[in-house]
Specification:
A hairpin with a 5-residue loop joins strand 13 and strand 14. The strands form 7 sheets. The protein has a 5-stranded mixed sheet with strand order 2-1-5-13-14. A 5-stranded antiparallel sheet has the order 7-6-18-17-16, with helices on both faces. The chain folds into 4 domains: 30 residues; 176 residues, Penicillin binding protein transpeptidase fold (Orthogonal Bundle), CATH 1.10.3810.10; 277 residues, Beta-lactamase; 66 residues, no CATH class. Helices cover 39% and strands 13% of the residues. It is built from 22 helices and 20 strands. It has 685 residues and is α+β, with helices and mostly antiparallel strands. Helix 2 runs parallel beside helix 8 and helix 4 packs across helix 5. The longest helix has 38 residues.
Length: 685
């Protein structure tokens, strides 16, 4: 008879089988979870390595002119631009098995748990470099299980998709080294005033010790504790085979020179210009505010730091400190439209309002070159004669009466040429031209020149009564300077991300906006404001600064009761100045009315001081002729004054001046073969 099985043994075997099945099921479940996690991580792909980085702004010569951040200095550098000692010191003290594990150091984790149990609290960390990087990249610092699970998941994703050097590079570029320095480049510059690639072993060991407690181990806070921490780092490097004991001793004894200052801390170059650049990044290039401020962008601008300093210094030296008058100044390279200097006001801290791009003021007579360009396109020539005398204009079928005045109520009371009218800024001639062309002509022409503000169809538009932006007017003059070629003003040449990849590259192709021959003839008439040979019933408007110029310039000044302007150019550079009060207060002081011209001529002369003197080069379709400025006819040897004047080919005068000949009462011997009904009408006017 078989013995009955022992119930206890049967129960034990059954329990063992259940335990084994449960354990096996748990293993399968955990394996399934890991497999699902792995597949999910593969599907969603690698996490981005970008973190908030300081956006840097560079001038045209590569100098840093500004920085935007959230109070945290961050600069991304490549792995090869970090000293090997810094890399070794970091791995040695933070995660010596970094190159051996796959994101988690289980042996170190077990050791940390035992150490914490023995101490009865948290005394030793076990996070790997990859885990710390995941925490810095994507997570908050709250101590919850949800956060720990997310950190583990990001750690897996990092290890699955990036090389060890990529992860280490990212870690070194993101960790906190104290005093607002995030990343090794910012830390190296703050503590030692050098690039991360030039750190010595002693410097690297000290920096590697800071992240454990930036408020404790910073040498700027406690040099003693920083040195103690440095010793620990050096000792770990010896133990892990990175350096010898002798090297450690030498590094420990090395005297360190601390800087304690961020590289760009005192950079406040061209703040008004930088504001425009940021606006361009947003509105023209489509970057959002966060990317502009913290995207680690490298923004290369058109600013010429030398010209900017000259402009700021000139403004400061010209306008008294106790004056409340304001100004807007901008300079451009006419060949490519690059904005090279910009001053939007007297003091950015007191008033960040940018009077170059935001303010709209009456341009006064600076609008006249645009008017006369239009006139040249409608049959006028530089020697077209019209009478300068007090005139009452009746428009709108006589319903509107307009009676403009010349400066100081001075009139020639005879016919003058367009050349002289522009040089002395005759208002009567300008209004007659404007009304003859039709009020809509100047409105359309201003738009073609790039004026973005609304132009009123009124007789006074010829005298600049519709508001404009300084940048628009200087841009318009740059078109004349460049024989009609141009594009919108350029502030940014290139934008790179933190890795150096190009996100934007300026297209420097220019369009032919104006007729080149007509633009040149207009610009040559504008040289007249500096030519005393054109003094007539009034002196040329540039007479007060003629003695200060050393090269050919073309330009035009302008004034209203509340605004004073000067815009002019050489073949290499164009600049413009507006001066006035923000509240529209009238300019009554003689000095206030001269600031614009003084600032302009000082800036141009100093900016071009070391540049070759260039002449304006005539394009095809123009012809030069020596004329008598008084009569507008071809000059003879008897004429006391002769001036080379350019005309659109086929419109140059053919009559010879007889006013100064021995028999001045004799009628002209030759008749202008190009005279037309239009010219007869102009003579009548």
């Amino acid at each position: 008879m078989d013995a009955l099985p022992n119930p206890k043994i049967v129960k034990a075997k059954r329990g063992f089988r259940l335990f084994f099945l449960a354990f096996f099921a748990l293993i399968l479940f955990i394996s399934f979870c890991f497999l699902a996690l792995y597949i999910y991580a593969k599907i969603i792909g690698p996490p981005p390595l970008a973190v908030p980085q300081s956006t840097l702004y560079y001038s045209s010569d590569g100098k840093v002119i500004g920085e935007s951040n959230s109070g945290q200095e961050r600069y991304w550098v490549d792995f090869n631009d970090i000293s090997q000692d810094m890399i070794d010191a970091t791995v040695s003290i933070e995660d010596r098995n970094f190159y051996k594990h796959h994101g988690f150091d289980y042996k170190r984790l077990a050791g940390a748990v035992l150490a914490d149990i023995k101490a009865g609290g948290r005394v030793q960390g076990a996070s790997t470099i990859t885990q710390q990087y995941a925490r810095n990249l994507f997570l908050t610092l709250d101590k919850t299980w949800e956060r720990k699970v997310k950190e583990a998941f990001y750690t897996i994703r990092l290890e699955m998709n990036y090389s060890k050097n990529d992860i280490l590079q990212g870690y070194l570029n993101t960790i906190n080294y104290g005093h607002g320095a995030y990343g090794i480049q910012a830390a190296s510059e703050y503590y030692f005033g050098k690039s991360a690639r030039h750190l010595t072993l002693a410097e690297a060991a000290m920096l590697a010790g800071i992240p454990k407690g930036p408020s404790i181990y910073s040498p700027m806070i406690s040099y003693k504790k920083a040195k103690e921490r440095q010793e620990i780092v050096l000792h770990s490097m010896v133990e892990n085979g990175y350096i010898t004991k002798k090297q450690a001793e030498q590094a420990s004894q090395e005297k360190l020179t601390l800087v304690g200052k961020h590289k760009n801390e005192d950079i406040h170059i061209a703040p008004y210009f930088q504001d425009v650049v940021k606006q361009q990044l947003k509105e023209k290039l489509g970057f959002d505010d966060r990317t502009i401020a913290l995207g680690g962008l490298r923004v290369y601008t058109t600013l010429n730091t030398k010209q900017q300093k000259i402009a700021e210094k000139t403004v400061k030296e010209t306008i008294p400190a106790d004056s409340s008058i304001q100004l807007g100044f901008v300079a451009m390279n006419p060949k490519n439209g690059y904005v090279t200097a910009l001053v939007g006001g007297r003091n950015y801290k007191d008033s960040p309002f940018n009077r170059v791009v935001q303010a709209a003021r009456q341009p006064g007579s600076t609008i006249k070159p645009i008017l006369y360009y239009a006139a040249l396109n409608h049959g006028f020539t530089p020697t077209t004669m019209m009478k300068s005398a007090p005139t009452t204009f009746r428009v709108n079928n006589g319903q509107t009466v307009y009676k403009p005045h010349n400066f100081n109520s001075q009139y020639a009371n005879k016919k003058i040429t367009m050349l002289e009218a522009l040089a002395v800024s005759d208002n009567i001639y300008a209004v007659k031209t404007h009304l003859f062309l039709g009020e809509n002509t100047l409105v359309k022409e201003a738009k073609q020149f790039g004026i973005t503000t609304k132009m009123e169809k009124v007789p006074s538009l010829a005298l600049g009564t519709s508001n404009v932006h300084v940048i628009d007017m200087v841009h318009a003059y740059s078109l004349l300077d460049n024989n009609g070629k141009g594009n919108d003003p350029v502030y940014i040449t290139k934008v790179e991300d933190y890795k150096g990849d190009v996100l934007y590259q300026a297209n420097q192709q220019q369009k032919q906006i104006l007729k080149p021959n007509v633009a040149f003839v207009t610009s040559q008439m504008m040289t007249g404001m500096f030519d005393k040979r054109l003094n007539g019933y009034a002196t040329v408007t540039g007479s007060s600064i003629v003695n200060q110029i050393t090269r050919p310039y073309a330009g035009k000044s302008g004034s209203t009761n509340t605004d004073s302007w000067m815009i002019g150019f050489s073949p290499q550079l164009v600049s413009g100045v507006w001066v006035g009060y923000d509240n529209g207060k009238e300019l009554t002081l003689a000095a206030d009315k001269l600031y614009a011209k003084k600032i302009w001529v000082k800036f141009m002369e100093q900016s071009l001081a070391n540049k070759p003197i260039e002449e304006f080069t005539p394009p095809k379709g123009v012809v030069g002729a020596a004329i008598d400025p008084t009569t507008g006819k071809l000059a003879t040897e008897q004429c006391p004054i002769s001036r080379l004047t350019y005309f659109v080919s086929g419109t140059e005068p053919t009559d010879t001046c007889t006013t100064h000949s021995p028999n001045s009462k004799t009628k002209d011997q030759s008749k202008d073969k190009h005279e037309s009904l239009f010219h007869k009408l102009l003579k009548w006017l």
